[in-house]
Amino acid sequence: xxxxxxxxxxxxxxxxxxxxxxxxxxxxxxxxxxxxxxxxxxxxxxxxxxxxxxxxxxxxxxxxxxxxxxxxxxxxxxxxxxxxxxxxxxxxxxxxxxxxxxxxxxxxxxxxxxxxxxxxxxxxxxxxxxxxxxxxxxxxxxxxxxxxxxxxxxxxxxxxxxxxxxxxxxxxxxxxxxxxxxxxxxxxxxx
Length: 191
Fold this sequence. Notes:
Shape: globular
Oligomer: single chain
Number of strands: 6
Number of helices: 5
């Protein structure tokens, strides 16, 4: 009903993966550079900012360097009963091989209701960042096993890849990722 707030009345729960002593992946920048947990939180906050600009109500499973357990994250989902749930991550691989060519965005869903959100996230993320689309995949992740709303786990890019690390950990890349998440949610709101 508000032209400048197309997401008014929409509730989104963002889950910045990892946190505290669970650092997630170490990026190509090394131990003293931002870790996956830091990039996840920065992207979730950028997405929160853009979603709120568009009128959405945004809840976060964490907004600092804390570590909610998987059970805490699912409880937050069940308690909030949002319209969308997105667990934000950055991908990695074992560092025993050349990681330069391992790049791109992928998203996971469990219940069919999450598949369109997963596809919109991959499409918008790759468009905003220029990253390769690795695809959307069915998987049994703990945080996606809710049929309260479309629930997905998004791997925005590879922090283990020197090719992608800077765009995953730099300001421009983080803002592009956050904006892409907001646009994907907007794409999935019934018109």
